[in-house]
């Protein structure tokens, strides 16, 4: 096999980059995959080598060939200047925020962010003397009025957690740019395949690798990728904070990454089919899926995104909790649980009203979030059909 240079990799299609990025079998006796390097101490042959840090690897915490393979593969995919791996998605969120904020700074945080991200802001950043204002995801140019002289960072997440709103990312980025703010984006739902964070001017792109990168619900993982401007501070903070990920989990993340393109395509296709079917049902008031015609976020999604993944929500007709439980408890293929992005389908009842402040959550019926896995769509629809019959039987009409 001919060796491919890193600069040449950028010219290939995204699925090719997913397959070849961060991989050099000639470094590993011809084995296709980079092995799991367990280790803390890295020995140097001489005192001179040890003290001059001339070796490629110096200490386990500072990285090994397994972590480096992942970082390179992610860079090949997302075109970032640098990548760090974190032990969870939430630690990727906290790492990105702490890399660019100091006491006295002000952060503009999207109101529809993942709830634990909000808790981190309110309980940790706040204690460190960082001011936080939450903004409506549909604020548009109104973001200008919220930017203060000490606003250092603007944080986006798209679509909104559970409620699925699509913000006008280019508008918000342009306003933030003008004031030289660092722009952060939680890109977990789209992955770099369906939203080009750096092409849209983002500085720090965060992914809960636990979801589509790992893809099999068998590891916790997080990634922060940085623009050229944000990379030095991220790299420094990451090194100073002592974060590192066990090599087995990095291996699982890298293994997941190789097949993420085909998996996402199937998640997208199946989720759209299930979402359209749900939209036709009388028990369902609204389907919140930006890929559907008629969704309030559809036009922006179509303009800015390259695809939709397998996660969306519905708002049911008003009904007692028992009806929702009857719907979900007996489903055969939809597990009840947190997280998503694995090969299996999941369902989760939700109510955002406790964790929103710039917007009001009052959808007029119970919310359920679905992750559509890789099962056959006909089986999923039959399962939901039976579930909706149970829901109807316990609904008060
Ligand atoms: C799950 C999730 C996270 C957190 O990831 P963990 O690996 O569970 O810590 C962050 N952001 C979004 C959008 C998520 O869905």
From TrEMBL:
Pfam families for this protein: Cys_Met_Meta_PP (PF01053)
Keywords associated with the record: Lyase, Pyridoxal phosphate
InterPro entries to which the protein is assigned, alphabetical: Cys/Met-Metab_PyrdxlP-dep_enz, Cys_b_lyase_bac, Cys_met_metab_PP, PyrdxlP-dep_Trfase, PyrdxlP-dep_Trfase_major, PyrdxlP-dep_Trfase_small
Catalytic activity annotation: L,L-cystathionine + H2O = L-homocysteine + pyruvate + NH4(+); an S-substituted L-cysteine + H2O = a thiol + pyruvate + NH4(+)
Pathway(s) annotated for this protein in UniProt: Amino-acid biosynthesis; L-methionine biosynthesis via de novo pathway; L-homocysteine from L-cystathionine: step 1/1
Cofactor(s), names only, from the UniProt record: pyridoxal 5'-phosphate
Similarity field: Belongs to the trans-sulfuration enzymes family.
Classification via NCBIfam families: cysta_beta_ly_B
Entry protein name: Cystathionine beta-lyase
Lineage: Bacteria, Pseudomonadati, Pseudomonadota, Alphaproteobacteria, Hyphomicrobiales
């Amino acid at each position: 096999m001919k060796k491919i240079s890193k600069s040449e990799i950028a010219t290939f299609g995204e699925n090719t980059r997913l397959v070849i990025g961060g991989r050099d079998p000639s470094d590993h006796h011809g084995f296709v995959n980079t092995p799991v390097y367990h280790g803390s101490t890295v020995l140097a042959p001489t005192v001179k080598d040890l003290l001059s840090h001339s070796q490629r690897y110096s200490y386990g915490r500072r990285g090994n060939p397994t972590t480096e393979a992942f970082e390179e593969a992610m860079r090949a995919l997302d075109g970032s200047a640098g990548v760090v791996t974190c032990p969870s998605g939430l630690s990727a969120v906290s790492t990105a925020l702490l890399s660019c904020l100091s006491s006295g700074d002000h952060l503009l945080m999207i109101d529809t962010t993942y709830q634990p991200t909000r808790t981190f802001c309110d309980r940790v950043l706040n204690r460190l003397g960082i001011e936080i204002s939450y903004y409506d995801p549909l604020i548009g140019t109104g973001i200008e009025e919220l930017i203060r002289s000490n606003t250092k960072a603007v944080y986006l997440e798209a679509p909104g957690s559970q409620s699925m709103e699509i913000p006008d990312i280019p508008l918000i980025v342009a306003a933030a740019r003008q004031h030289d703010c660092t722009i952060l984006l939680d890109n977990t739902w789209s992955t770099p395949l369906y939203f080009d964070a750096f092409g849209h001017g983002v500085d720090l792109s965060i992914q809960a690798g636990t979801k589509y990168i790992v893809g099999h619900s068998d590891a916790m993982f997080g990634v922060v990728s940085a623009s050229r401007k944000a990379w030095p501070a991220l790299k420094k903070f990451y090194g100073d904070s002592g974060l590192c990920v066990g090599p087995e989990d990095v291996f699982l993340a890298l293994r997941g990454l190789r097949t993420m393109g085909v998996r996402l395509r199937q998640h997208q296709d199946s989720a759209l089919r299930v979402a359209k079917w749900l939209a036709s049902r009388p028990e369902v008031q609204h389907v919140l899926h930006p890929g559907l015609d008629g969704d309030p976020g559809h036009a922006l999604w179509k303009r800015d995104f390259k695809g939709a993944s397998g996660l969306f929500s519905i708002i049911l007709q008003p009904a007692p909790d028992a009806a929702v439980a009857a719907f979900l408890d007996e489903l055969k293929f939809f597990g009840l649980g947190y997280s998503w992005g694995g090969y299996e389908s999941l369902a989760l009842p939700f109510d955002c009203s406790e964790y929103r402040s710039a917007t009001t959550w009052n959808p007029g019926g119970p919310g359920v979030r679905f992750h559509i896995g890789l099962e056959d769509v006909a089986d999923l629809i039959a399962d939901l059909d039976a579930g909706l019959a149970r829901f109807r039987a316990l609904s008060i009409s």
